Amino acid sequence: MDDTCQTVLNTGLRGVTIASTKISDVNGAEGKLVYRGYLAKDLAGNTSFEEVVYLLLFEKLPDRDQLKAFQQQIAEQREVPEQIIAAMQAMPKDALPMDVLQAAVPMLAAYDPDIRDTSIEGAGRMAVRLTAKFATIVAAWDRIRNGKAPIAPDPELSQAANFLYMLNGEVPDDELAGFFDACLVLHAEHSFNASTFAAREVASTKAHMYAAVAAGVGSLSGPLHGGANTRVMQMLLEIGDVDKVDDYVANILDTGGVIMGLGHAVYQVDDPRAHILAPMSQALGKRAGDTRWYDLSKALEVKGKAAFKERKGKDIFVNVDFYSASLYYYMGIAVDLFTPIFAISRIAGWTAHVIEEQYGGAAAKPALYRPESDYIGDYCGPDECAFVPLDKR
Ligand SMILES: CC(=O)SCCNC(=O)CCNC(=O)[C@H](O)C(C)(C)COP(=O)(O)OP(=O)(O)OC[C@H]1O[C@@H](n2cnc3c(N)ncnc32)[C@H](O)[C@@H]1OP(=O)(O)O
Ligand SMILES: O=C([O-])CC(=O)C(=O)O
Fold first, then answer.
1. Domains detected in the chain
2. ipTM value
3. Where along the chain is the active site annotated (predicted)?
């Protein structure tokens, strides 16, 4: 390894700043999340997902006319080529939804008329297409795997309401659509999280947007990242009852496991998004006349935090995936769709970051991410091993 390199071995790059960005800021100490200067908590519930996509892509909030035109642009791009739907119909019905979504990304690239256009305008059009179509793919897959025909998108509906409509065949009421919209707003962007970093790393090679986004989807699927929301719900279902929380927590910590939805690589306080998601989960529980999953989440938060502190002598906090789980469950969404739902929102952040990576961020950086590694493998004594042909080994 080059002596001039800063050594941050096996730290997962925690605390290492690798590039500047104008897109978002995560203040881990204060628990603040800012999208292009605006607090995400001020945007959720007060703006639509489409407004936030516009903000992330075009660096400012739209005025009324700009928003109307942008909503129309998104609505016009929601249809997915029938060949891709046919390919999905040919897939095994038990395929993982994140695999299906990831597989659809290069297929979408094959149908994108701008795929050879390297201009920033072309990238912007690709970003809009991907954002519009992700929701259609996720909803279509859920229907296909359940033996139902996909529902065509309704251009009159918002991205949030249209997703729920394409999933269930029913237009959601305002409260449900509003809550789902707020979820999309809250999941849209989070600086250099693992999946965005993966997307930016691919974009740094000058590969096209779809190649970068496919990497982002793969990274988001992991249980330590976006995949945690599905695992949180599986954990709640496994516990099943508030009375069993103590035993569950003790057992998981005794066996070196992790409580899904707790802990974060950056936040040293509660994730600010959890404070908005939790009351929405509680409200939907009340509306359903069954607050069990919210109550169980709350008990798990309290007891999990206390047990962690007792054992490790330090605090742990809830992250975005903790309360989104019960919230989506109350919406009647299949548990393994929670992470694809994260993706139908985070696509906005990924595409904004790909554009920033390729067409200019806040400051110049070398085009290609290429860190060093420390070789700790074998040599044959002081020298490299002498090669032995196959038939002499
Ligand atoms: C959208 C998102 O990506 S948000 C994150 C979603 N992921 C999860 O909810 C999965 C559960 N959480 C975790 O695994 C972790 O908290 C992470 C990966 C998210 C962040 O981890 P980091 O801050 O890097 O901490 P790290 O994994 O190094 O853990 C530090 C210590 O806390 C422990 N710890 C961290 N999170 C948890 C948890 N949820 N439950 C129990 N112990 C935990 C670790 O075991 C480790 O203990 P040790 O020091 O005795 O080895
Ligand atoms: O920032 C992270 O490490 C994970 C996260 O919360 C997100 O991607 O929303």
1. 24-227+337-359 (1.10.580.10), 228-330 (1.10.230.10)
2. 0.98
3. 264, 321
